[in-house]
Write a structure and sequence with these properties.
Length: about 725
């Protein structure tokens, strides 16, 4: 059946291969064996039950905690022509009855329900008349009182399972510590089931903790370089949400608030506008976000501290679900810690103890000087294998270095004076960057000495400097936004004072070389003008179908279109997220725009690159080359030397090969281990008890006597020997 699952993956969903533990989890479910699936947000958890649902003869029930999440999932499935409905209190009586009739006729493959709806007598009676093959519990951490989002009604799920003993059960979540994982298993009676635990690392998220000094201006500086990007800003209180949303609205941003103080209709409208790309930014309390499946959230800002690491991880997990680089910034001030402590002190007993431990762990993370991923993953029982991630403030500490910007400040203020202090920042920047726009030429500012002397910086960087100079009172704004010199500014021009500050850049300079932290050549070099045209078309199609834009195609797909410039509909199938259904539905609309654009701009299709992409699925990937050489007799040590990498990297390649369903030679793994037979037996018993998929619990059970390098080798041996 896994071959059929792979066919559905490509033809329906448009993906070339399974990710993380998807294939193993799907195989488990298709074999009618219960499963606990823990994958990071954006890791593809939904496919672990959606693909089996399309293969099973009967229906799959999905229990979901939020109405918005159900609606979102069902809308996306309908775009793939997959029959799915939901039953909840948001439906009008006639809609509810219509959906029930479709369920009873056997027309539906996936039925989404809130736990309260599931436990209603009429729902249970209805379902007893049907063949239920799969029972799915989404956001399963809600069942645990040790989790950060405990929902008592989730505890009733075990009662429902008794009604359908033949149905396989799959529980899914992105945020579960080892203790929460065990609680989920116990509560759902999954004690003998397999757990499929993928890494908690979201490598495309840039993590940064900034001292909370001047938060409103810090936020405005951050947003200035991210125009037209979607993002979420989290605040501690409703009042802060309203004040910040008002400020951003006054600054010209497309923004809406979201908190429990708004009535349900207002919340629903604001969330819908955000999901549909009608609003760019949501300022919210923690009331917002669970189950928001908007892939193109490019940033998450914590204006105030979250209450615990689970909340933080879940909230930053709403960024970058499409795999593209996204920024996660937290403004950290000790006054926020005191606010949280105040609310903790209102609790008592075990609840207070849990909250205090949560806060302690969070502060420890925020104050860490190590790579951010080390303490974050450690909290979830995972060891980060690298010394540095290259995608956090501590690994790229240059981001936070205070720079001497005196020379650029002198250039900027000299240009203000040369242009007679009669213009705003935009015009001054145009002069510095040698612009030939009409306003510069009309005033003959291309003739003054400061014309073109600022080419070393981008327009955004000069704009950030102008804001910094305003904030530090070197200059001020006069009538109509005209910039005016202040006494401090004149002192800088005379050489009596220096200007220091921090620039927020999307690129980081290290040893004079700029490193662009993005994932691929495609992401770096796509045609932005074409991308915007495709985005407009996507929005038009989405509005016509009354679905979010990403239900048509995610940004990743449009970026690939704007890079490869495909000239016919069939070529679209090589692109990310384009299956046969969507190719036929939407292909002509997008190909028409691409062909018109390329003809007008004399651009050729990247035919060779596109052909390579088409063939990529049949090409041999590096982990396959490494694993095949290993199986032919090469040692792990020799392979590491040949490929110029650490042995742990070779182990990672071998694990990926094994996860894809292949075999590894056991003798080669034992040769790589320096453990005695007694120690190996101890490790195997520990993995039997704690599961081999997470090494931290095994490491702790062995009293930290056996290191992670050896445990990784034995993990492979354990998994390979059990196949």
């Amino acid at each position: 059946m896994i071959n059929r699952a792979q066919s559905i993956l490509k033809e329906t969903f448009g993906y070339d291969s399974f990710r993380l533990q998807q294939e193993a989890a799907i195989t488990q479910v298709l074999d009618k064996k219960d499963a606990l699936v823990i994958m990071p947000t954006g890791g593809g958890k939904s496919l672990c039950y959606q693909i089996p649902a399309m293969i099973f003869e009967g229906m799959t029930i999905v229990v979901s905690p939020l109405i918005s999440l159900m609606k979102d999932q069902v809308e996306q499935l309908r775009e793939y022509d997959i029959p799915a409905v939901y039953l909840n209190s948001s439906l009008r009586p006639e809609e509810y009855d219509y959906n029930v009739k479709r369920v009873m006729r056997g027309d539906i493959k996936l039925l989404y329900l809130a736990p309260e709806t599931l436990m209603m007598d009429r729902t249970r009676e209805m379902l007893k008349q049907l063949q239920i093959d799969c029972f799915t519990i989404d956001e399963a951490h809600c069942i645990s009182e040790w989790g950060h989002d405990f929902r008592p009604e989730y505890r009733q799920m075990t009662e429902f399972r008794k009604d359908f003993p033949e149905a396989v059960c799959i529980a899914l979540t992105a945020t579960a510590t080892p203790r929460v994982q065990e609680d989920i298993k116990q509560s759902l009676n999954l004690t003998d089931s397999e757990a499929f635990i993928s890494s908690f690392d979201r490598s495309n998220l840039f993590l940064k903790i900034a001292d909370k000094k001047d938060p409103e201006n810090q936020l405005l500086d951050f947003l200035y370089t991210r125009k037209n990007q979607s993002g979420i800003i989290y605040c501690f209180s409703r009042r802060q949400v309203d004040e910040l949303a008002y400020l951003l609205d006054q600054e010209g941003y497309s923004v809406k608030p979201y908190h429990a103080g708004l009535n349900s209709r207002e919340r629903s409208i604001n969330q819908r506008e955000f999901i549909r790309d009608d609003v760019r930014i949501i300022v919210a309390t923690i009331a917002f976000g669970m189950g928001i499946n908007k892939p193109n959230v490019r940033f998450v800002v914590h204006f105030d501290m979250p209450q615990n690491i689970e909340s933080y991880y879940q909230q930053i997990g709403r960024a970058g679900r499409d795999g593209l680089r996204s920024d996660c910034i937290l403004l950290f001030g000790y006054s926020d810690t005191q606010k949280i402590k105040y609310f903790i002190n209102q609790k008592s007993g075990n609840e207070k103890e849990v909250a205090e431990n949560h806060l302690k762990e969070l502060v420890k993370y925020l104050e860490s000087l190590d790579c951010r991923r080390k303490p974050l993953l450690d909290y979830f029982g995972e060891t980060y294998p690298n010394d540095e991630c290259g995608m956090c403030d501590n690994c790229l500490s240059v981001d936070d270095d205070v720079e001497d910007m005196t020379i650029q400040a002198q250039k900027f203020m000299s240009c203000m004076i040369k242009s007679e202090e009669s213009f705003g920042a935009g015009h001054v920047i145009d002069i510095l960057r040698g612009s030939k726009n009409q306003k510069v030429l009309e005033h003959e500012h291309d003739q003054i000495s400061t014309y073109g002397i600022g080419m070393e910086w981008s327009k955004d960087q000069w704009t950030q400097l102008s804001r910094l100079l305003l904030r530090q009172n070197y200059i001020s704004k006069g009538e109509y936004g005209v910039l005016v010199m202040e006494d401090r500014g004149h002192q800088v021009l005379k050489g009596n004072e220096n200007v220091f500050g921090t620039m927020d850049r999307t690129d980081v300079a290290i040893d004079g070389e700029t490193i662009v932290r993005t994932s691929s050549d495609v992401e770096n070099n796509y045609n932005e003008e074409l991308f915007e045209l495709l985005r407009v078309k996507r929005k038009e199609l989405a509005d016509a179908d009354d679905v979010p834009p990403y239900a048509i195609f995610p940004d990743t797909t449009l970026i690939e279109m704007a890079y490869y410039f495909p000239q016919n509909k069939d070529a679209l199938e090589a692109l990310y997220g384009v299956g046969k259904v969507k190719k036929e539905k939407f292909g002509d609309s997008f190909i028409g725009i691409i062909k018109t654009f390329t003809a007008e701009h004399d651009i050729m299709e990247r035919q060779k690159s596109l052909q390579k992409k088409i063939k990529k699925t049949t090409a041999t990937e590096k982990h396959q080359i490494v694993a095949e050489a290993f199986n032919e007799g090469e040692s792990i040590k020799l392979l590491a030397e040949e490929h110029g990498v650490k042995e742990v990297t070779i182990l990672t390649h071998l694990k990926k090969y094994l996860d894809e369903g292949n075999d590894l030679r056991l003798d080669g793994l034992l040769q790589a281990s320096s453990l005695s037979d007694r120690q190996r037996d101890q490790v195997m018993k520990a993995m039997d008890e704690k599961s081999p998929l997470m090494l931290r619990p095994v490491y702790d059970l062995l009293n930290k006597q056996i290191g992670y390098d050896e445990l990784r080798i034995m993990q492979l041996f354990y998994l390979a020997s059990k196949k």
